[in-house]
Amino acid sequence: MNRIIAIILLSVINVYADTPLPTPSKVTGLSVNGQYEFVSDPQSGTRATEVRTGNILWTIDDWFRWCFLADDGSHFVTGYNGLNLIPQNYKKDLVLITFWKNGTKIRKVTIEEIIPNLKILEKTVSHYHWGTISGFTKNGLIEILLVNNERIFYDPKTGNKTEQHN
User: Fold this and answer.
1) What is the model's pTM?
2) SS (H, E, C) the chain
3) Do residues 24 and 42 touch, judged by C-beta distance below 8 A?
4) 39 has which bridge partners?
5) What is the spatial distance between Cα 166 and Cα 157, in angstroms, rounded to a whole number?
6) Across residues 115-143, what is the average pLDDT?
């Protein structure tokens, strides 16, 4: 179901590919298992809590437009704030995905690492479309759908690419 929503969202985003991003606003979400939730607020930063108790697990001073919380409540993944579009004058060290553990950054992944062949980028009026972060898979990996429909997976505990995607 999450994949269907991501594909629909990606299609809608592509139609409006060069419209300005919405004003920063509060983003909320749940882990896939529903045991943990996060709130990312432009005014107060980001926090994760346990749903059952309301206990705060960790905080980050920054706000994120695009984020995902793992089923352990500890691992958090944030995407580039420009979502699926990057500037045409991007640099190869542009960070597309950041991995966190308990509010501490553990790894940043650049466009050059995610897309070694940058020729697959799809040019829009004023940007390049690179792909989308689909979210967590049923076995806890982050799935990325590239613009060429290739699916790649990262382990949120290490921030490393993995072939294990069953």
Assistant:
1) 0.83
2) CHHHHHHHHHHHHHHCCCCCCCCCCCEEEECCCCCEEEEEECCCEEEEEECCCCCEEEEECCCCCCEEECCCCCEEEEECCCCCEEECCCCCCCEEEEEEECCEEEEEEEHHHHCCCHHHCEECCCEEECEEEEEECCCCCEEEEECCCCEEEEECCCCEEECCCC
3) yes
4) 28, 47
5) 17
6) 84
152 vs 33: CA distance, rounded Å: 22
The pLDDT score that the predictor gives to residue 6 is 47
Q: Is the pLDDT of residue 3 over 70?
A: no
Q: What is the pLDDT of residue 12?
A: 46
The C-alpha atoms of residue 29 and residue 20 are separated, in whole angstroms, by 23
66-84 pLDDT, tens digit per residue, is 899 999 999 999 997 777 8
Angstrom distance (rounded) from CA 120 to CA 124: 13
Q: Which residues of 105-120 are buried (b: 16+ CB within 10 A; e: fewer)?
A: eebebebebbbeeeeb
pLDDT value of residue 16:
44
End-to-end Cα, the chain, rounded Å: 16
Mean pLDDT computed over every residue of the chain: 84
User: Look-up: residue for tokens 């984020």?
Assistant: 67
